[in-house]
Amino acid sequence: MPALSSSPYACAAPHIAALFPSGVAAYEAQGPYTIDLLFDAERPCIAHAVESRVHEFIAGRVCARAALAQLGHPPVAIPAAADHAPIWPSGFTGSISHAGGYCVAVAARLTDAGQKRGITSLGVDVEQVGQVLPTLWPQLMCQKEIARLQALDERDRDVTASLIFSAKEAFYKAQYPLTGGWVDFGDASIVLLENSFVLNLTNADLAIAQLARSFEGRFLVGSGHVITALAI
Fold first, then answer.
1. Does residue 195 sit in helix, strand or coil?
2. Out of 6, 41, 43, 166, which could bridge 228 as a Cys pair, Cβ 3.0 to 4.6 Å?
3. Which residue ranges make up each domain of the chain?
């Protein structure tokens, strides 16, 4: 078992933590890492994974443990459930994302947020700009989103498409621990603002729609990536 508290393999990411309410810790890393950084309980999760997935998994756990350490939690295994979602220690929630060798993880105490109702779940997503190709838009976007993209020049279109897709991914990650239910890309519409976004649900039958019909998040663009963040 690795003896890690504040990991030397991950860097604090206050710029990502700032996308969330107070009380959220964020760490980032650029692998690859060796399997000795995993706990025994985590290793079966990647027993049959390809090499790239192994590196992503290790980086995610390194970042997640560092975020938990910042919140005062001792080193702990973060295995994956049957649906591949991370199993966070009791009293904590978090989210992990990776793209192109870059990884980020966020965590929070369920009772910390600096808000009256606190945090119940987190979603973070990172995407490489240029990967959401026009051929994928019909699967990922609603007609309003596609029309908006078609009106942009190529560079703005690539960034905007990445942000729309990433925002939906961040929302899905945040809502899934609360509902255990799938949200189709067509069930939500994204409105991008200056440094934030609003996700509006277009399907009132979803379990998460019983909580709210719209959710707000924030985003960053830079270094060939977009990062989106949403707390529920």
1. coil
2. 166
3. 11-119, 124-231
Token pair listed for 17: 């933590």
Q: Return the CATH number of the domain spanning residue range 124-231.
A: 3.90.470.20
For residue 111, what are the CA distances in angstroms to 90, 146, 171, 219, 226? Answer: 12, 39, 20, 24, 28
How many alpha carbons fall within 13 Å on the CB side of residue 9? 24
- Residue 153 CA to residue 217 CA, distance in Å, equals 25
AA letter at 218: R
Q: At 178, give phi and psi (nearest 5°).
A: -85, -30
pLDDT for 117 equals 60
Beta-carbon contacts of 68 under 8 Å, excluding residues fewer than 6 positions away, are 25, 76, 89, 92, 94, 107
pTM of the model: 0.92
Q: Report the distance separating Cα 129 and Cα 124, nearest Å.
A: 16
- Residue 153 token pair: 């020049």
Q: Which residue has the tokens 């830079």?
A: 222
In the CATH hierarchy, which fold is given to the domain comprising 11-119? Ribosomal Protein L22; Chain A (3.90.470)
Give the tens place of pLDDT for each residue, 103-125.
999 999 996 544 456 899 999 99
The answer to whether the Cα torsion of 65, 63, 66, 21 is positive or negative is negative
Please, what is the end-to-end C-alpha distance for the chain in angstroms? 33
In whole angstroms, give the CA distance from residue 152 to residue 160: 9
